[in-house]
Amino acid sequence: MVLTLDNLDDGRVVEWRLTADGIASSVRESYTPTLYIGDASGDLYGRQGGMTPSLPERDRLSPALRELRAFLDGQQAVSDLTVESHRQTFRTEARPLLRVDTASIEAVRTVAKRVRQFDQPDTYTCYNVDLTRQLRYCLETDTPAAPDRSVRDLRTLHLSFPSHESGIESLPQLTVDGDRVGSSPREVVTGLREVLEERDPDVLVLSTANLVPLLFEAADAYGVEFALGRGTGYTKLAGESTYTSYGNVGHSPARYAVPGRVIIDESNSFFYHESGLEGCLDLVGRSGLPLQELGWASIGRVLTAMQIREARSRDVLVPWRAWRPELFKTASTLDTADRGGTTFAPDVGVHENVHELDFASLYPNIIRTRNISPEAVRCGCCDTDDVPGLDYSICERDGYLPEVLGPLIDARSEIKAKIPEADGDDRERLEAASSAIKWILVSCFGYQGFSNAKFGRIECHEAINAFAREILLDAKTALEDAGWRVVHGIVDSIWVTPADERDQQPLEEVAREVSAETGIELEYECAFEWVAFCPMRNSESGALTRYFGKRRGETYPEAGLGDAIKTRGIEGRQRSTPAWIEDVQSEALRVFDETRSPEAVCDVLRRRLRELREHEVGPNGLIIDNRVSKDVDEYSMETLTVAALKRARIEGAGLTPGQTVRYVVVDADAGGTARVRLEYEDLDRYDTTWYEDATVRALESVLAPIGWREGEIRQYLSGTSDETLAGFVTE
After folding, report:
1. Cβ distance 34 to 49 under 8 Å?
2. What does the pLDDT look like over 480-523, one tens digit per residue?
3. What share of the chain is helix, strand, coil (3-state, %, to 5)?
């Protein structure tokens, strides 16, 4: 069981393990990473298995592989060439492949590229090529990836540094666990060294990984002996890059490693942000992905690691490219298959006595209960019409994907059952583990349709959607037959209210019947005193994901809405909304709950806008947070965000696509960069009119369900009527 691993330049690997006193290291002197190569034509041995193992090793290979072996033999990147039999897919038997042991981690990809260039691109198929370093080592050496916390708990150290700073002269702004360690770059490096020696942390949580080269640059400039890890120096694992995922542009910062310590970059760690260190460690144990790599891994990468472990247990190799193309479909099948989950257009307005029911982990449970797996859907060996509307067959043999997700579904159910009885550290640990698993389950469906998924397949994606549509429609029918009216439904959730002049069967009974019929639990989520479904911004049609409602029996905490009002899609849920506008909308929602009066809500707006005009609002509460989608020079419109990006470039803190820019609008009608100020500049003023307009739009979301749009709101504000008493929230 390891904490982390270091790959040395000479090919050796250092394993770092926790001990009761601190940490111990050991060196593996010879480690040769491995890839496998198959003959894509399969002329010699076909689908049913390899040649007889009694043949000499060389003769067990196809002619194409023998030719390739001769080409690779003696190359510097190659350590050894042998023949081994493995399964290339879940549907084939093991057959002889060329095993290539390489001289180093870097040599794996070098050999794979040479293989692709040796003949036509489709002549050979490479396997186990692009595994991450530490995951590969753990898999190939059967080394458990999780640190042994039965020995002792992990020690962590948090280093924070302003994201817009870059030079060593800014190092005095560095904080260690919230405290400054020096007033000059030399003092900072020296002070941090002393903290590291005293605390001896196992995990370094950095606000930005750019701190790593910056600290070493400062140490070198001032002649200070310095080590961030448990050895000298650092390694740059990858440079910064920009990527696009599901239409969104993201930024991946540079990644670094130091000897003997794990680095988690908060700006590049989804799972640390969502579930903390405990959630990350729980996933390390479940995925086999070491903590250093899980810290920066995406949901898809963690899911892939789990799939790789299941594939290896079945002696299936990991393809370098997606392993199966989309099968032929008729035009009518394509039209039917190219649909998402079922949605019922919401009934715009405010509805009393509403109940929400949700299918528990709908998509993962469809995969599990319907045996949805890449090798099972349209398997070719079963002639059945199993998938509703598509008539795809599903194999009778158990698929591998349900085997991957089943333990996660069960584990999360067990964890959620324990949470209500837990407290303190135990509760925090359980909630972190539940959150981490949730994200894997949420994403498993979409990953089947991802073109670069190692074991993905679009037919699985289509089959899951087809089952989900049928399940929600059947649930709607059952609820309506039981005397309930459906006011909204989307994919796995459904909202109902008692139908007029009908007797209602208890929802718990209906839910049990639907659960038994579908094989997936329909859970009673909660009751609402009322729910408001919003119309689209420029239409009277209902917006699918914009609503808010008061949970029955909940009260408001002092800090705000808490769990009393559930909101989705409105401004308070959007990351770009300034904190002050979010607070105004929260107050308006409370008054709306108490009065249902649009006049009272507008009185809240009138009073809060007065604060804005009289400059009683601090500029820090008006900061806008926007993600950059492309390079600043590629924008054609001079928006406020573009002005902020240009200003950041002038200030020497230019941003790349995928990063976030934070700014305050100071004069929307001005030209160029004068329209905004960045969050770290002097914020002594703001554009009152612009923020008034933004706040009115936020209040429109609250009042649109009862017919008050921006025109009605402004008309009321322009009047001279006295404010209602209900417009003031009492503490």
Report:
1. no
2. 999 999 999 998 999 999 999 999 999 999 999 999 999 999 99
3. 40, 20, 40
Torsion angles phi and psi, residue 560, rounded to 5: 155, -150
Of the spans 317-331, 497-511, 621-635, which averages the highest pLDDT? 497-511
| 539-564 per-position pLDDT tens digit | 889 999 999 999 998 777 766 677 78
Smallest CA-to-CA distance from 38 within 101, 128, 106, 102 is with 128
Written as six digits, the tokens of 622 are: 């008006």
Secondary structure (DSSP) of 134-183: HHHHHHHHT---S--TTT-PPPEEEEE--TT--SGGGGGG-EETTEE--S
Give the integer Cα–Cα distance in Å for 259 and 16. Answer: 9
Number of helices (H), then strands (E), in the chain: 19, 26
Q: Give 449: exposed, middle or buried? Use CB within 10 Å, 0-12, 13-18, 19+.
A: middle
pLDDT mean across residues, the chain: 89
DSSP output for 640-708: HHHHHHHHHHHTT----TT-EEEEEES-TTS-GGGGEEETTS------HHHHHHHHHHHHHHHHGGGT-
What structural domains and CATH numbers belong to the chain? 34-141 (3.30.70), 145-313 (no CATH), 335-405+451-535 (3.90.1600.10), 548-617+690-727 (no CATH), 619-685 (3.40.1820.20)
| Contacting residues for 419 by C-beta, under 8 A, at least 6 apart | 427, 430, 431, 434
